[in-house]
Write a structure and sequence with these properties.
The complex is a heterodimer of chains A (248) and B (203). Chain A is α/β, with parallel strands linked by helices. Chain A has helices at 85-91, 128-140, 162-170, 198-205, 221-233; strands at 12-21, 26-33, 44-50, 56-62, 72-78, 98-105, 119-124, 147-153, 175-181, 214-219, 241-245. Chain B is built from 2 helices and 11 strands, in the order βββαββαββββββ. Classes of the chains: A alpha/beta (248), B mainly beta (203). Bound molecules: flavin-adenine dinucleotide. Chain A: This is Ferredoxin reductase.
Chain lengths: 248, 203
């Protein structure tokens, strides 16, 4: 397993060079780093906003781009109505703005193709972001490691990175996409329309040539608890499950 | 550096008593953070071992451990993910009382706390003694729920909360300050919230 050695990660200024709407509630921001760093798929950055009176707000955002993406990092931020930082990004931040950023951070919740597989990735909502970095890393490395991504969204239009994921799924090169919609009927024949449960985990893992060596789960707190329980009920040993929780 | 267009409606938490460390906000709930799924540890299977290096000094069952003197601590806690929570109230066994029951003084200056799920975190011995830390058994008067580290967790409230290892099963004295799980993964070796010692390279 690649476990990051502690890296030096002071604050730096990063310029927004592109903004791309991904879904009605999620927008990607592409940052050009003033001091480029090499990250591992699954790591995050912290951003820090400073008001004129000196008040600061700081939040973590997973890196969506592959480590191979060079000196830019993509983060995909979901807008929370009553939030402080995510509405700033959605309403105020513009191309050319410089934002204080620190990273890469986190050394546990990572995967590289040299760690091997098969692996099962389980994401809820914006929890798919660090998993996307892993999927993109696999593609960039032309890796043949079998990967199943189970991605839960409320509705079809909230499936972040939808077109890219379906295109990868269509390549039939060992990447299996399983979508589950919690508030709409499934749109593809082998997808689901319910919350994640043990049976769904079992069926998704059966698409892999052998049982996964690692399960990687990310999302908001309650989602991660439920998905990890479902994996355990589907006989995945707890020691093979890595989780990252986005908070409340 | 001021961020263009950022004017928060939120004010820094009113902190008349100086209780909120820099970079923290006040949380009313009790968020759950962990590196993996929640282990279910039955009290029948629970034990707590005090070690010096590889050598066990004393081991307690759940019943034996619960027979040790119970103390109460009401403290503010601070998570590295930036929330702080005031006046959390815990009951458990002070590390002082564990050492007294084993009939020893700290044999070295450093410890590693160990958990049932393989997690470990390092805390200097001086940060555990003199009433500063306990093995907590009750939160707000009730058994600690599995999500929050029950049946027993370490409580070192003056350090970032990742030091307060959940699902605790032992404390090991070590010759050197040995980094634990998060300390090996980019987090600060000590973790003082008042000095914002979050990541390895923080002063
Ligand atoms: C490692 C990690 C990676 C993450 N990656 C991503 C990612 O890739 N994409 C993503 O979108 N998010 C991610 N998050 C979550 C992200 O860090 C923020 O929590 C999220 O964007 C919300 O921030 P906010 O400032 O908009 O909302 P906050 O202001 O933090 O509010 C969050 C919620 O809490 C409530 N709240 C909190 N404080 C108050 C208050 N004082 N008054 C009223 N209500 C309050 C609000 O109801 C709000 O809905 C990640 C988190 C972690 C820990």
């Amino acid at each position: 397993m690649s476990e990051a050695a502690a890296t030096q990660s002071p604050w730096q200024m990063a310029k927004i060079i592109r903004i791309e709407k991904r879904t009605p509630r999620v927008t990607s921001f592409f940052f050009k780093l003033s001091r480029p760093f090499a990250h591992q798929a699954g790591q995050h950055v912290d951003v820090r906003l400073t008001a004129p009176d000196g008040y600061q707000a700081r939040r973590s955002y997973s890196i969506a781009s592959a480590p191979e993406s060079g000196g830019t990092v993509e983060v995909a931020i979901e807008r929370l109505e009553d939030g402080e930082v995510s509405p700033f990004f959605h309403e105020v931040a513009a191309v050319g703005d410089e934002i204080e950023l620190r990273g890469p951070l986190g050394g546990h919740f990572v995967w590289s193709d040299s760690d091997g597989g098969p692996i099962i990735l389980v994401g809820g909502g914006s929890g798919v972001v660090p998993l996307m970095a892993m999927v993109r890393h696999r593609t960039a490395r032309k890796s043949s490691v079998p990967v199943a991504l189970v991605f839960s969204a409320r509705i079809w239009d909230e499936v972040i990175f939808r077109d890219e994921l379906i295109k990868l799924d269509d390549r039939r090169d060992g990447f299996e996409l399983v979508l589950t919609l919690t508030r709409e009927p499934a749109q593809r024949p082998d997808d689901y329309s319910r919350r994640i449960d043990a049976q769904m985990m079992m069926q998704s893992m059966s698409r892999l040539p052998e049982p996964p060596k690692l399960a990687i789960v990310c999302g908001w707190n309650a989602f991660v608890s439920a998905a990890a329980e479902a994996l355990i009920d589907a006989d995945v040993p707890a020691g093979l499950i890595r989780t990252e929780r986005y908070g409340v | 550096m001021v961020t263009r267009g950022f004017f928060s409606g939120r004010k820094p938490p009113t902190d008349a008593d100086g209780r909120i460390p820099p970079g923290q906000y006040l949380e009313q709930g009790f968020p759950v953070l962990s590196a993996g799924p929640t282990p279910r540890v039955r009290t029948e299977d629970w034990s707590f071992t005090l070690k010096h290096g590889p050598r066990p000094l004393k081991k307690w069952t759940w019943a034996e451990f619960n027979a040790l003197p119970l103390s109460r601590m009401t403290r503010d806690i601070h998570c590295v993910t930036a929330w702080s929570k005031f006046d959390t109230s815990w009951q458990g066994v002070l590390i002082d009382d564990i050492l007294a029951d084993a009939g020893i003084a700290p044999p070295t200056a450093f410890t590693l706390a160990h958990s049932f799920d393989g997690y470990a975190t390092n805390v200097p011995a001086k940060d555990l003694v003199a009433g500063k830390a306990m093995v907590a058994l009750l939160y707000e008067g009730k058994p600690i729920t599995p999500d929050h580290g029950g049946p027993a967790r370490l409580l070192v409230p003056h350090l970032y909360f990742w030091k307060s290892a959940k699902w605790l099963n032992g404390l090991q004295f070590t010759e050197h300050d040995e980094p634990g799980f998060w300390e090996l993964r980019g987090y600060h070796i000590y973790g003082d919230p008042w000095r914002e010692q979050r990541y390895t390279d923080d002063p």
